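Record type: monomer structure entry
Structure origin: computed from sequence
Chain ID: A
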Amino acid sequence: SLLTVTERRVARFATLGHANKEIAIMLSISPKTVGRHIESITNKARRVYGSHASFRNLTVPELHAYYFLID
């Protein structure tokens, strides 16, 4: 898997539309750490989808395909 356990958790909440601050509260980490995880996830998504990819802008089918690629 390309994503760490925490990145997967952050990704799950982010794709449900939660803000970084909300994710931070739910995972007991700082909002800054959530931002770093989002950045890392986006960089990994760009390796799969190209330089134009932004994690929060991926479509649901793209996200599902991405998760299948990393499992």
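Annotation 1: The chain has a mean pLDDT of 79.
Annotation 2: Residues 14 and 23 are 7 Å apart (CA to CA).
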